């Protein structure tokens, strides 16, 4: 049986029905998720793939009877449209007779995680069907569902069909074992008008299936996700012994777009827009004879408006024909583009007479981390008509301000004081240790809450403390049980002082020292060198913790060096060399793809004789607009990551055993990129790609500050 770690538990809810969903019409037939973990029919794949940026969650209870007779028959899958024409699915199949006896006792059956991939060939010739090739169960350890296939699909009016050929492998490579997908397969799906329902019939090469599927419309309360429910029945199914085994099964899927298209943001902003005053030169009177507000009046009004939107350390002033604004943002934590949209919009609208350009300095922990500037009239036009061409022509982004602070004529009083409102920041985030698909449990876990309290000191300096409170855990993680090392420990986990600073215009460094891992003392840090010729960067990370206990002194040292190649604003590849926490050494490679504020990373890490591959899902936890600046500010976390990994097996390392400590990279308690640099999305190309989001944020969160 395969041991592997995996993703968060999906609770199978077979009692859910499709009642009520039939009231929601759809315009076209959407994708469905087959039980094997791929877009397709009931059990077979099709030549269609998830759109780039789509995520599919699926749960069902279909099981091929040739694999055995089990009480638990669960399928869970998680898929991503990772690239155009490429989808990647992870699948967890649980076919067992789990015992209710003492935790830690092994069970018999199929408890397996696997990876499936499909590539749709770029053959968009008119009149020709779609063609795709794919593979199922690409993983180490035990193999139950491995096959390679090619399939063609097409649509004619309400009818979609697929025809393919698969070459399957028996479980474990045994010559006489049952093959799940093997030989010629095919099927058809008939849409029933605009009802959202469709009828399906297919064969997987060994048995036949028929079913009814429902596709909902996009649901705003589910982030424009679509629900897909499928009821199916097998015909001609047999067990390995040849006995009849026809059965009914249910599959439920949720398909969600992770990002928002720029055109969609423009439409959303236009829909929410409340008319702005007619265009005029900044600071000009709106009617003949009306008194023109003084520069100080406008700066006062702007500072009050910015503080009213929840921003901190607000300071405004004038430098020649430029309006200068400083701010610190811990309210809009999903993406700094939201705070920038608020600031640029209000500053452009409130610019005093004679000002032609707005310069905005972004602060984190009181330290300047970036500067953005734009032409005032270009931005004011953009707010009204949504045409970003002129804004992109005049938008400049730099790592640090290029002017002398003393040269700015800062406004008098509070408007130019940069007063800090937030003194104490409290961040909540979950901690999850888990195993998935082992002989000892389908899902064993320890869930805890991490409460981080942060106090800003001087520029770039913060002192923070992490307190952990365990919330829930499975029996197998209790003391003395098989996964006891995964149980979270309650108490004060970290107290450290962190100092961040620039060593030149393109070298950012953040170091910390204090108490780590409950009882240890040490230091950690990261340096990021931004290369002068493009958006690439070099990263150096390291940590050292000395942890004494009753038996011996334990030292944990880990470091990494890596080069990040930015292919575009959504994709980067990072190549590195690591010393892992288990003292092994080796190379690593990671591919990261961004969909809005969600990142999906594929990684491979080798240490000594072990190679682990996996996927990490990273996302912000907290509302798009959180709590504003206050003496005590409660926030979510700007970035929370959940990895799943498995060991690659070979002839010299054949066991895919759970080993939490093996080949773990350096994991900083304070992650400077996440805390200070917008999760690594502060390059000029990143900011320029977000201008429609900035406009949307202005109308959502700042428009009401203008009379």
Task: Describe the protein's architecture and organization.
With 707 residues, this protein is mainly beta. The protein has 3 domains: 25-256, monomeric porin ompg (Porin), CATH 2.40.160; 264-421 and 689-705, no CATH class; 426-671, Porin. A 14-stranded mixed β-sheet has the order 33-21-22-23-24-25-26-27-28-29-30-31-32-34. Strands 3-4-5-6-7-8-9-10-11-12-13-14 form a 12-stranded antiparallel β-barrel. It has a 6-stranded mixed β-sheet with strand order 19-18-17-16-15-20. Helix 1 runs parallel beside helix 8 (691-701), helix 2 (295-308) runs antiparallel to helix 3 and helix 3 (336-350) crosses helix 4 (376-385).
Number-wise, the strands total 34
Rg, rounded, reads 28 Å
Distance between the termini: 67 Å
Instruction: Return the CATH architecture of the largest domain.
Output: Beta Barrel
Q: Which class of the largest domain in CATH terms? A: Mainly Beta
Tell me what portion of residues adopts beta-strand conformation.
35-45%
SS summary, helix count: 8
């Amino acid at each position: 049986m395969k041991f592997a770690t995996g993703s968060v538990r999906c609770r199978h809810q077979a009692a859910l029905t499709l009642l009520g969903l039939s009231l929601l019409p759809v315009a076209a037939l959407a994708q469905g998720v087959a039980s094997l973990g791929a877009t397709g029919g009931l059990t077979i794949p099709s030549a269609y793939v998830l759109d780039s940026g789509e995520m599919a969650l699926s749960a069902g209870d279909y099981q091929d009877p040739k694999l055995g007779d089990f009480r638990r028959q669960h399928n869970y899958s998680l898929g991503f449209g990772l690239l155009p024409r490429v989808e990647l699915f992870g699948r967890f199949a649980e076919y067992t007779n789990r015992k209710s006896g003492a935790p830690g006792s092994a069970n018999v059956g199929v408890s397996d995680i696997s990876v499936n991939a499909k590539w749709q060939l770029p053959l968009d010739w008119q009149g020709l069907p779609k063609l795709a090739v794919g593979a199922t169960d690409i993983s180490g350890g035990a193999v139950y569902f491995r096959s390679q296939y090619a399939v063609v699909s097409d649509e004619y009016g309400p009818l979609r069909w697929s025809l393919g050929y698969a070459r399957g492998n028996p479980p474990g490579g045994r010559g006489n074992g049952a093959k799940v997908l093997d030989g010629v397969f095919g099927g058809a799906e008939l849409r029933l008008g605009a009802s959202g329902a469709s009828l399906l019939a297919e064969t997987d090469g060994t048995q036949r299936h028929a079913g009814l599927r429902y596709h909902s419309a996009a649901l705003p309360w589910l982030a424009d996700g679509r629900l897909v429910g499928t009821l199916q029945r097998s015909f001609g199914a047999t067990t390995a012994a040849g006995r009849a085994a026809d059965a009914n099964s249910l599959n439920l899927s949720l398909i969600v777009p992770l990002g928002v298209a720029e055109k969609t943001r423009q439409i959303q902003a236009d829909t929410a827009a409340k008319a702005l005053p007619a265009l005029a030169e900044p600071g000009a009177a709106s009617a003949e004879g009306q008194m023109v507000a003084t520069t100080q009046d406008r700066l006062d009004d702007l500072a009050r408006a910015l503080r009213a939107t929840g921003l901190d350390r607000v300071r405004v002033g004038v430098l020649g024909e430029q309006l200068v604004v400083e701010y610190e943002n811990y309210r809009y934590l999903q993406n700094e583009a939201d705070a920038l949209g608020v600031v640029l919009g209000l500053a452009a609208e409130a610019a005093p007479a004679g000002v032609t350009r707005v310069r905005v300095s972004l602060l984190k922990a009181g330290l300047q981390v970036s500067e953005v500037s734009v032409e005032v009239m270009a931005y004011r036009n953009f707010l009204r008509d949504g045409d970003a061409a002129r804004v992109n022509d005049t938008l400049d982004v730099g790592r640090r301000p290029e002017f002398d602070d003393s040269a700015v004529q800062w406004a008098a009083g509070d408007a130019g004081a940069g007063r800090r409102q937030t003194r104490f920041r409290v961040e909540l985030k979950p901690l999850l240790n888990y195993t998935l698909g082992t002989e000892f449990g389908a899902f064993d876990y320890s869930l805890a809450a991490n409460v981080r309290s942060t106090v800003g000191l001087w520029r770039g300096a913060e002192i923070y403390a992490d307190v952990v409170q365990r919330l829930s855990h499975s029996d197998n993680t209790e003391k003395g049980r098989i996964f006891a090392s995964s149980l979270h420990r309650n108490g004060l986990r970290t107290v450290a002082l962190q100092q961040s600073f620039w060593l030149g215009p393109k070298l950012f460094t953040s170091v910390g020292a204090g108490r780590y891992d409950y009882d240890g003392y040490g230091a950690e840090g990261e340096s990021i060198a931004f290369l002068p010729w493009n958006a690439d960067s070099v990263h150096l990370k390291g940590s050292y913790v000395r942890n004494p206990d009753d038996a011996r002194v334990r030292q944990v040292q880990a470091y990494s060096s890596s080069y990040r190649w930015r292919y575009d604003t959504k994709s980067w590849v990072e190549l590195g060399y690591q010393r892992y926490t288990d003292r092994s050494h080796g190379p690593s490679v990671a591919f990261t793809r961004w969909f809005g504020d969600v990142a999906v990373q594929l990684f491979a890490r080798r240490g000594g004789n072990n190679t682990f591959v996996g996927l990490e899902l990273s996302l912000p936890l907290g509302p798009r607009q959180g709590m504003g600046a206050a003496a005590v500010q409660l926030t979510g976390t700007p970035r929370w990551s959940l990895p799943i990994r498995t060991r690659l097996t070979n002839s010299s390392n054949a066991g895919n055993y759970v080993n939490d400590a093996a080949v773990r990279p350096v994991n900083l308690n304070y992650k400077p990129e996440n805390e200070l640099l917008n999760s690594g999305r502060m390059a000029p190309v990143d900011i320029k790609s977000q201008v429609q989001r900035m406009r949307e944020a202005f109308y959502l969160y700042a428009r009401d500050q203008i009379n």
